[in-house]
Design goal:
Elements: E1 10-21, H1 24-32, E2 36-37, E3 40-41, H2 42-55, H3 57-60, E4 71-78, E5 83-94, H4 99-117, E6 125-135, E7 139-142, E8 145-148
Antiparallel strand pairs: 1-5, 1-6, 2-3, 4-5, 6-7, 7-8
Helix pairs in contact: 2-4
């Protein structure tokens, strides 16, 4: 792991997003059914899974530090007729950032949506997972653009 012993403790936040693309008929079925699938409530289950994953990132990614996350917030909603955006925001006051926790939370939430909906179609695509922003460390990032701290 990276030695963070000399780093300064700061408030750190990271936001990641995953996009899940559905076939049009599946998206329509989900909307009309209150975002429930044969397995149950899709988004509620994805939020729980994403939160659990963010908290356990250090068990999944070998060189991540175990962190006592202070906030993990997942939101999901359709951004087009067929695309569901899942956003995971993670915050901590620590010497290391939470980008991997946010990315892991969004990824696992997206995988959970796939699992919850695969009975409807196997043509569901997890289209992208990316860091939208991070702040509080040496460098800040917003929508993929690096900014040096002022």
């Amino acid at each position: 792991m990276v030695d963070v012993g000399a780093k300064v403790v700061t408030a750190r936040v990271a936001v990641a997003q995953a996009i899940v693309r559905f076939p049009a008929d599946v998206a329509k079925t989900l909307r009309e059914g209150g975002l429930r699938s044969p397995k149950g409530p899709v988004l509620d289950t994805a939020v729980i899974a994403g939160t659990m994953a963010a908290k356990r990132t250090h068990e999944l990614i070998p060189f991540c530090h175990p962190l006592a996350i202070e906030r993990c917030k997942l939101e999901a909603g359709f951004v087009s007729d067929t695309e569901l955006a899942i956003r995971c925001e993670v915050a901590i006051t620590h010497k290391t950032g939470v980008e991997m926790e946010a990315l892991t939370g969004a990824s696992v939430a997206a995988l959970t949506v796939y699992d919850m909906c695969k009975a409807l179609s196997h043509e569901i695509v997890i289209e992208s997972v990316r860091l939208l922003e991070k702040s509080g460390g040496k460098r800040n990032v917003r929508a993929g653009k690096l900014r040096a701290k002022a």
